[in-house]
Design a protein that fits this description.
6-stranded antiparallel β-sheet, about 40% helix, Beta-Lactamase, Heat Shock Protein 90, 13 strands, 5-stranded mixed β-sheet, alpha+beta
Length: about 375
């Protein structure tokens, strides 16, 4: 049942009860005048609540970084002030510690002698938790593939240490040569330690943490991780724009997305080819969703087998894969899509069978916290 009646009640209440999402109406005085059954089930009975601010004080709302969202920054209050609010993803902590991931939209309206804001809320808790689990599975799959190839590199490092240490123990060795051999050992140990640390960081599950970063640096680190997988018949070509502006992003998540794209490209070139990575200032002009000009873009292109046009619309779906059974889980591109969406970016693909594939990612330099940042 609604908290209050919205006149004329019959038709409007029936529509609001049938649309399948939580609906609440707040008037210009910030008072609730209506809430449908789903809203009441989601937030609990609130018949004794008169204003939005009183209701809001019952809950702690957080953004994706875990920072509390103040009342004045809430979508409803901003919409009441006349601001345009396209969407807001929030993490709500209820009494008793129960939490949910919600997506909220707030739209101003004026009809039937009533004006205010209509708030629409979708519970995405199950979707968000599933997406995080899929992302971690994909991360572990990529980590396993890289670790298997890197075993050879680590063995080479250990051989270097063994030979240098053995030479340093010779009785006739000079002090100068001994120092040189010990430096070889220290260099090899440092290389092995750094490699293991990077693998551990890549495999660790983490919440989103946005900081100012340079996309070119993230690309370089991702290339270092996949270097052991690059076969001799594959040419790497990187053309990174030197004047690329800093962006606000989660470096670990972006690195994971790029590693997935690089590994997919390598898999698409079983007989060799070229993997090229290009960065530029500005968004992808061909993307259906237009981003502001203060954006950056990265193109990951290969000369491999390509993607049939008939399946290109499904390649970002979870568990969809064109690889043979046992060769892929179908989580890689889905994970990439999720990371790009979490950064308010776009990802587009251009491909044809036998003509390779180009993935173009565009990212805004600044994150608008009012925008939704999750896939789905």
């Amino acid at each position: 049942m609604p908290i209050f009646s919205l006149h004329p009640a019959g038709l409007l209440e029936s529509i609001c009860e049938e649309i399948g999402i939580a609906v609440a109406v707040i008037d210009r005085q910030e008072k609730f005048v209506f809430a449908n059954r789903i809203a009441i089930e989601l937030f609990g009975e609130t018949t004794n609540i008169l204003t939005f601010r009183e209701w809001r004080s019952r809950y702690r709302l957080e953004d994706l970084d875990g920072h509390e969202i103040g009342v004045e920054s809430s979508a409803v209050i901003r919409a009441l002030r006349g601001e345009q609010v396209e969407g807001q993803e929030i993490h709500v902590v209820f009494a008793g510690g129960v939490s949910k991931w919600l997506r909220l939209w707030a739209y101003p309206f004026s009809a039937m002698r009533l004006s205010g804001v209509i708030a629409l809320t979708v519970d995405e808790t199950t979707e968000v938790e599933l997406r995080r689990a899929l992302s971690q599975l994909n991360r572990m799959e990529s980590l396993g593939a890289m670790a298997a190839e890197m075993t050879h590199n680590l063995n080479n490092v250990l051989n270097t240490i063994t030979l240098a240490a053995g030479a340093a123990r010779r009785e006739d060795i000079s002090v100068q040569e001994c120092h040189a051999r010990l430096n070889q050992v220290l260099t090899a140990v440092s290389k092995a330690t750094g490699l293991i640390r990077r693998l551990m960081q890549f495999g660790r599950a983490e919440d989103m943490h946005y900081v100012p970063v340079q996309l070119n640096n993230i690309i370089s680190e991702a290339l270092q991780l996949i270097q052991p997988l690059v076969r001799e018949n594959v040419k790497l070509k990187a053309e990174l724009c030197g004047s690329l502006p800093t962006i606000v992003a989660d470096p670990s998540q972006l690195e994971q997305a790029l590693v997935n794209l690089f590994m997919n490209a390598l898999d698409a070139m079983p007989t060799g080819g070229e993997l090229s990575i290009t960065t530029a200032v500005g968004p992808n002009p061909k993307s259906p969703k237009k981003l502001p000009q203060n954006s950056v873009s990265i193109v990951v292109a290969d000369t491999g087998t390509g993607i049939p046009q008939a399946v290109q619309s499904a390649i970002f779906d979870p568990f969809f894969t064109t690889k043979l059974p046992g060769k892929g889980t179908g989580l890689g591109l889905s994970s990439v899509y999720g990371v790009v969406r979490q950064h308010n970016g776009t990802i587009d693909v251009e491909s044809a069978p036998g003509a390779g594939a180009s993935f173009v990612i565009s990212l805004p330099t600044q994150l608008d916290r009012s925008e939704p940042k999750t896939a789905g």
